[in-house]
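Run log, item B.
One chain of 370 residues. Sequence copied directly from the ordering sheet:
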Amino acid sequence: MIWRAGTVNEVTKAWGDARECRVTLEDGSMHRALAYTLLVGTPEPGDRVLLSASAVARRLGTGGYLMIVAIPDRLPSDPAPEPGHIVKARYTPLQYMTMGADEQESPWHELLEEADSISGMPVVVADLHSALPAVVAAIHAKRPAARIAYIMDDGGALPAWFSQVCAGLTSAGAILGTITAGQAFGGQLETVNVHTALLAAKLVWDADIAVISQGPGNLGTGTRWGFSGTSVGEAVNAVNTLGGQAVGLLRMSNADPRGRHAGLSHHSLTALTRVALSPALCPVPELSSEDPLSQLVEHSMRQLVSEQLDTLFACRRLTRLDVSTAGLSEAFSASPVPLRTMGRNETEDPLAFLAAGVAGFAAADLLKTK
């Protein structure tokens, strides 16, 4: 843990329950800092703040923020008593107490107590949080009235408040909201695990489709098994256990400089063929001459992906579905939030978003069979 103290100069940006600030440290340097208001209160110019600086000191890319841990001279008032005894980020200095939709004090406890099925609900399972806007845009392009729930597991960011994507999609009405599962917290609904998150999406929110991914900031070590996206396979198993239809979103890229993520990422290959022990429908982008983004994917990359897909679909549990990318450019342009992955937009890494978009198309089409 690396500590710093500083003073807030200005609040530069706000979304949901997050506030981005400019702070000056004791050594005179100026940095971006982030405060979660439900944890530490709302920062104001002139406030003295205590910050955690480990990620910035190690020059990690995720977020690029100092994190405001406390505003010691102006601590927030105690919250009013309310139901809930679920503790998330457990046994850390900033553990967060909330009400889980599935716990005894919840108004939905009786509804969820013996619940055991999501009744065929399509569930798109993604590795990266950045896929969410493309999936949502594609679903709405085919089914404008679709009720979409986003489930954020605890593989990346724990506070849902960090995600500008979640805040933007929710405020625009593109998704019903976020359900935070496991140690993740800050969603409109909280649950103990992905299984009860799926049940809450279907039974509490009456969702037509759910999308599951980790929060922003996935973890990878460059090894076969050392990455947080193994949760994709576990989520596929949960969807099938509860009687849903798992749609495995293939993580692809034609711009990632790392060989293990070129074309079809090894994350998808490992999670879907080795961790998932139950079926998944895996949509493959059928690059259309009618779609401007498809034209940006070079021939050599198409050849590489074709070879990688042969390996993937040697796994008999996975069903290949080729889906035309026609119409995705228009769908993406209607997204209420920007599309970005690893700092790249849809024209800089078109394959990443086309793969996400066809997963959304496929999930929307599954609703027709209900």
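Observations after the first pass:
- The two ends are 51 Å apart (CA to CA).
- Residues 109-369 form a domain with the Rossmann fold fold (CATH 3.40.50).
Flagged for discussion on Thursday.
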